[in-house]
Amino acid sequence: MFRNGKYFNGRTFLHQQLGDDLINELKICRIRQNKYEEDGNIFNRDLMFYSEEYGVYKTLPSKKLNAEIRRRIKNISNNRQREVRLYIEDMAEIKDIKFENYIATKNVILDVFNRATFRYSPDIICTRYIPTEYNRLQSECSILDKFMNTITCGNKDIENLLYEFIGYCLSPTIFIHQFFIIIGEGSNGKSTFFKLLTELLGHWNVGNTPLNKYGGRFELAGMEYIAVNIGDDISDKALLETDNLKKLVSGDPVKVEQKGKQGYVIYPTCKHIFSANTMPRVVDTSGGMKRRFVAIPFNADFKKNGDPEILNKIIEAGGLTVLMNRALEGLQRLRSAYQFTMCDEVLLTTEEHLKEMNPLAIFNDMWLNNEFEPYESPTAKEFVCVPINEVVANQYYKFYKDFCKQYGFEALGITRFNREMKRLGYEKTRCWNGNLRGKYVYALMLKECANSSK
């Protein structure tokens, strides 16, 4: 073995000396993400190191640490390498983020609240790097103006709302507890808007976890350091689990897991925006869910007049720096009012989609899509939702009450249930053929059902 004399005393390997040198040279540490975070939780997360190139503290992967060890002792054994690594994990200092409103841009450290700037320094504990140059004097970009005006159909309030949301993504803090779903069909500009947001923030600051995966075991760990999670074209299937979504939107601590590692708690600061052609069926209709949800209409149509190079043109014209300035102005408005700009069109769209969160309508849709499973049936995995008009009415009502029990709804009484089913297009009627002859079923009032009443 080649031996660096600095790290050996005769045949004795001085693993502490090598560990201390690496800690000092790479500024290795652990970072307390939230002032309430306990030390025990911090030790379950990754080590961090300071990147002079980007002015931020970044996650230190095991491979990079091993490479740094071998760079100093080329032929070090795996056991001694592990000895150094364990020493560093034990001795790395815990550092607090003193200024939560700091981010690193391409050229300076920026206070996103008062727009003060500083040179890169390891003394400033910052973990978010934005690959866009900050220049407060650069405030005009006509092609950016045209794009934003087009996707909002000339609605300045919606345009301001989008700038405020982008500004909120720049902020490494949570102080408004809302998430957004862009609603609109076809080529309406939402995908280009998401790409523009990703170019501004950097792809490493953007997650793409679908809304219906927020209840998964391993999906949430990736949200620890990102600025925003974008769910493009989310499914219209029923959203059954919303507890994590509400916690993430509010910045509450969330327990996460990574495969092969011990679970730990994160204090998320990422924001959440999705897009959908039609509103997903949200089973949770609680006040907490409704307060957090905002629907933004995107009604533009780029099918005929879309410019496939618009994103590149905005970037080449310096539009990202201008976008950052507009976003920071939006963030200032948001902090002053503590609410997003809400015009009548946004409020009406949101209210319309909240009305669609009808538990009985959701149950009917889940049944039709074979998504419902009885609560305590030992054969639940084999359960098949046959057509509604092939289920005895009383049994269908029992399944509905089972559904309400599972998801915390208050079930309608049978009279109101029948009335609401009729409003949704189903009438209670007697079947006159087949195995259900003489029994009541719920049949579509349109004559599409084979078992309609005579």
Automatic annotation (TrEMBL):
Q: Pinpoint the SF3 helicase domain residues.
A: 157-311
Q: Which UniProt keywords apply?
A: ATP-binding, Hydrolase, Nucleotide-binding
Read off the InterPro entries from this record: Helicase_put_C_phage/plasmid, Helicase_SF3_DNA-vir, NrS-1_pol-like_helicase, ORF904-like_C, P-loop_NTPase
Could you give a GO molecular-function term held by this entry? ATP binding
Has the keyword Nucleotide-binding been applied to this entry? Answer: yes
| Stored NCBIfam families | primase_Cterm (TIGR01613)
Q: State what protein this is by name.
A: Phage/plasmid primase, P4 family, C-terminal domain
Q: Which organism is it from?
A: Veillonella criceti
Q: Show the taxonomic lineage.
A: Bacteria, Bacillati, Bacillota, Negativicutes, Veillonellales
